[in-house]
Amino acid sequence: MKKLRIYILISATVLLVNSCTKDFENINTDPSVVTSPDLNALFALSLDNLETYQGTEWIWENLEQLLRFSQHMTTDPYELSTNVNSRYGVYYSNILPNLFEIRKQIEQRADKARYRNMRAATVVVQVLHGLKVTDMNGSMPYTEAIKGRTEQLYTPVYDDQKKLYDTWLKELTDAVDSLSGTAAGQVNFGSSDFIYKNNWASWAKLANTLKLRIAVRYERQDAAAATRIFKEVMQNAIGPIDDGSQFVYDRPEHNPIGNDIDYRSPRFATSSIMTFLKLTNDPRLPIYFQPNDLTGSFKDSLTKYAKTLPAFININDPLVQYQGGPADWTTDPVNAAFYKTAFEVSQFTKYRLYSPINKKFFAPRYGNFRTGKMLDYMVTRAETCFYIAEFIQKGYGAGFDTKGTAEQWYNRGIESSIRTMNAIAVAAESTTGLTGNGDAEVLAYQNNVNVKFNGVNNLERIYIQQYLNFYRLGNEAFTFCRRTGYPKNTSTYYKRNTWNEPIPRRYAINEPPLGTNTNNWTKSQQDQGFTPGDRSIPSLSTQRLWFDKTSPNFGEGN
């Protein structure tokens, strides 16, 4: 029996050795390593990560910082938390690697020409988020990024912002050319393209609008380059985004803000935005903000108890239920106190005087709400129209067909903005601003004396409509205010609220783990004129990004 066991052991050993020698490659392959990933799944994951990380971004950046700095809303001033800039990490961990892998797999296929459009769409996605990353960070790894697995390059250079823009413009142009070709025989992403559903023309339109986003950032540094980009987009047969190709994330269960809508502090209207929305009878007013407590029979209560409202409120205002206050609470502490303290009429009656943001518009399922969905329009027709109107108004459209005047594009943008915001409100089951088909309200707004072109301050009017349209896009709102200096401190049209607090114009990129890529990081910081490792507000508010170096100060647009 003992000998039999020995023979069996020897035989098994011989067989094992022979097997290892014969099939060494197969047996020693790690089964947990995927060598042929599902391209559709990788694409869907990247698309999903454009949005799903934003719960953190909404709370710590948009609602608490960026939309406060832009004065779209106001809230308690808080420190610039280390929780900001989640956009940076998700780009390199959950977006870029998948898109690079898709292209790598395509290149290895004999029929790679059939994947031309899929490849182009991956480029558009990575530029979309890459632009958002550089908007607050400046130089970043891109041309040498994600090469550790394939080329063992673990110390990528940080490309400066100009190089990023130029690289992306070429990539977008190439993508548009690819996406404009015949779709016959092209493989698609199936249901994994839950944004455009494999409509390649829509992907091309997005690429063209992204070129316009780059152009407006380029303008202060090189107006000729901005003009060239604008001309390319307007002369392209497919053109930029229209109402049918807006880039919108639509997942019914998506609820990034939820009950954190009031995290640390509620948010309210500023007097600047509220005054203008009321003055122009803007249909977006009830979409953007909720009424205060001055509704119903409040006047009777005031009379009964012989109370007079604070001087900043006109009791005979037909829209008295909508009130905004100081953007920077330190500039008017007496009236700012009403953000936190209700106006007391009697022991039993107290009125909140300022209008909160429309919470359901931002967070359809906060509190006890279980229905309604959040549509996130990341790139819109209105944004596109206002860029075009801006460039034409500045004279950049001379000598070629701009497919309309500045005023026509301006009015197209206004209509699209109002209708898009209303669609978001409908989906959220929130307060809407249009009745019936909305045509009457849109036309009345466009013809309002304080909205329509007057030949005096047309550019400012374009700017303000662009600004109002960015109410839901914190990054674009803040970038707009940086590049233009609008709203202006001295304007008689739309005056920016007085502001005392220094505003950081960028974020600080953390130093890589010691011994990894510190040299490249340090060089990029110094090349940009930054103090490496300095996260202080004085540095972040004065040491500017490349696109922002020649921009006006906040409120000092020209």
What does this protein structure show overall?
It is globular, with a radius of gyration of 27 Å. Helix content is 47%, strand content 2%. It has 558 residues and is an all-alpha fold. It has helices spanning 2-22, 24-27, 39-49, 54-69, 86-107, 116-137, 148-151, 161-179, 200-218, 223-235, 271-279, 285-288, 298-304, 333-336, 359-362, 381-393, 406-428, 439-446, 458-469, 474-484, 518-527, 537-542, and strands at residues 247-250, 343-344, 350-351, 375-379. The strands form 2 sheets. Strands 1-4 form a two-stranded antiparallel ribbon. It has a two-stranded antiparallel sheet with strand order 2-3. The model is unreliable at 1-28 (pLDDT under 50). α9 packs antiparallel against α10 (223-235).
Straight-line distance between termini:
98 Å
As a percent range, the share of helical residues equals 40-55%
Principal-axes geometry comes out as globular
Largest sheet: 2 strands, antiparallel
Low-pLDDT stretches: 1-28
Read across the widest sheet, the strand sequence of neighbours is 1-4
One letter per element, helices H and strands E, the order comes to HHHHHHHHHHEHHHHEEHEHHHHHHH
Rg measurement, Å: 27 Å
Overall mean pLDDT:
93
Structural class: mainly alpha
User: What is the number of strand segments?
Assistant: 4
Strand content: under 5%
Number of helices: 22
Throw out a few tags for this protein:
2% strand, two-stranded antiparallel ribbon, disordered N terminus, mainly alpha, single chain
Question: How would you briefly describe this protein structure?
Answer:
Helices cover 47% and strands 2% of the residues. The chain is built from 22 helices and four strands.
